Amino acid sequence: MKLFLKKIFYIFFMLLLISIISFLAIHAAPNSFLSAGELNPNMTPEAIAKLKAVYGLDKTLLQQYFDWITNIVTLNFGISFVSGANVSDEILKRLPITLVMNFISLIVVFFLSLYLGIKAAMHYEKKSDYIIRQLSLVSFSMPSFYLALLFIIFFAIKLELFPIAGLHSLESKEGAEYYLDMAWHVTLPISIMIFTSLGSMIVYIRSLTLEILKSDYYYFARSRGLNKSKLLRFYILPNLLPPIITLLGLALPGLIGGSVILESIFGIEGMGQLFFMSALSRDYPIIMGTLMITAFLTLLGNMIADLILLKLNPYIDR
Length: 318
Description:
Layout: H1 2-28, H2 45-55, H3 61-72, H4 87-122, H5 127-141, H6 144-158, H7 176-213, H8 216-223, H9 228-266, H10 271-281, H11 284-312
Helix pairs in contact: 1-11, 4-5, 4-7, 4-9, 4-11, 5-7, 6-7, 6-9, 7-9, 9-10, 9-11, 10-11
């Protein structure tokens, strides 16, 4: 319980720090949504001053931050400059698809990289090891936006196996067909997220497994005549899982950040696309709202990873 409270306090402290840095960085950027000429070149200074008063931008920077952070406590992120909609409603509407895509990617990356990394290490310097290493090299060096374009050209345009963009087909569907249609639309972006995240994980797991295979306790276990399945279950996996879970927790920001690119390319109405469009239009309330939600999810993921590590090893340093 004490550790859990410490983690909660850490999350709130980091969110406060992130909010200050993000708020200052955004307001330090040149120009703004209400800069002269941004909305309408014919707008008078008086009209711009009235809009600033409506959105509270005529106050001091400190007062703006205090008002904004006070509203966040009630999950009120303000009103969008562009659409006039409630920022919290906009984020909640787009958050589920981004979470589902990232969660599926994370789970598949975990199991697939674990299998391939161990397989490469167990067949060191053999053909399977060479193939897996080349695969991880391609994955590690492949930009997600470039792979997305290749997938669209090959799978969507030439083979016509998957849709180019969007979350749903034009024909209305209900029940199970609705979700199957959605799964069909997100197959390509999820596949890209998985492939581009595999490389570093495979290399890391392969390296850790090779160290375990060279250890004294592993040699001793082999000398006792244990078969491969028992060696894997009782000697390799227990020593692999803690560092892998730690790395997965650190990989969360990269996965969520990758959603910005892929959701924009594939036209998926998720948080990534919302952030990208808001950045182009300088919609500060939505930018700050998505930044804070992303930061919270990242910190929450790291806390869950720490708690899982504690479960796996109760003697870990707290």
